[in-house]
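Lecture 7 notes: from sequence to structure.

We start with a single chain of 465 residues. Read the sequence below before looking at the structure.
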Amino acid sequence: MTRFTPLPLVALWLTGAAHADELTLQPKPFFTEQTFGATAIPNEITRIRLEPKAWADFEFIHLAAHGSKVAAGDRLVAFDAEDIDKKLSDAGHSLVASEISHAQAAADFAKLTEVQQLKLDALRRAARNAKEENQYFTTTRRKATEEHAAHTLKRAKETLENQQEELRQLTKMYAADDLVEETEEIILTRQRDAVAHAEFGLRMEQLDHERSIKVTLPREAETLAASERDTALALAKAEADQPRHLKLQTIQLEASATALAREKEAFARLQADRKLFEFKAPAAGWFYHGCIEDGRWSSGELLKTLTIGGKAPLKRSFATFIPSTAKLGLSAFVDESIARSLTPDAKGRATLAGREDLEIPIKLSKIAETPEPDGHYRASFEVSWPAGISIVPGSTAEVSLITYEKAAAIAVPAKALTFTPAGWTAEVKLADGKTEHRQVKRGRSAKGTCEILSGLEAGQVILTP
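Now the structure, written as tokens:
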């Protein structure tokens, strides 16, 4: 792989002294480099996923091939809609029936107050009339009826007495004659009949009088008293029940309205879900199985279900549409040490497997501030893709970035440094051939070499283990 080293910097090398364990320090260019893998990810995608509100059964009957190039309007995915269409038909009929039922209940409720008031008024009239009838009977009519019965009986007695007296007079008068004429006999017969009739009338009047006094009037008194009592109770019950009944009817109507609203919502959710049974390409582009989320291309076990007759997963992306106008960038997930070394607008090169001769310029556009659950940080790069190279989403590349550079630096092998309670030290050879440990301040590290920020100078000789 060809490495990119920006001019005018050159590599920093440590030069050897008289023998292998002595190094003479000289200032040289120093840089650190990070290399890691990345994936080509489009900046514009349409994730295909099912977010149904009610329906859960989505069986593939059409699925465009993975990686296929599609035109606007091409069918990408379709599902078997036979069962949901039946459900929609049944639900639609049920909804119409519920709407009619609720409309009738609302119409009945609108008349309820008026009807209840009319019933209450009728009960009030009945209670009033029953009370008045009982009071009138108790105070006036019973006594009058008794007097009338007594008077009628007396008249019947008087009538009988009169008829009897008249018969005696006629008999006495006609008995004075020696011969009773035929006309006289007729008059006497008629009178005898009148007496018999009066006797019968008196007997009937006596029976009626006795029954009226002992049976009819007491029974009527009981009936009127019971009527007054019963109508009063009915009125009191109605006056207490009417508000409760009205409240109950109000609750039932509200429940009916709520049930109807929920039925409408369920039907609307089902109608909305019906629109999910076909996905078409919104523009020209590519169709991929699997999904791109958060800079990652994933499929895994999902691909097993992406077949005709298979069941589509719910509430997760299972395919991706990439418009032909989308631009490809590079996305990588790096460990914490690399993420910490990256600086804004860091630049570098990317290479493709099989075309290592191409060094593709890249620039860091974003590095995540927090790690993913797996501990890696997402890094996004802008890419200047060379002409004539076909790069498709999902392609992989190796990224190389210069993360730190200094034109002239003192650097030593990491193994030449020793950590002590006082800090890092290096063993320096003195002019008289002796050595001493000097405290140094360490900088960046790269490939087993450490930058020295202070404590050592150019020309000094250090010893390495």
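The mean pLDDT is 88. Keep this in mind for problem set 3.
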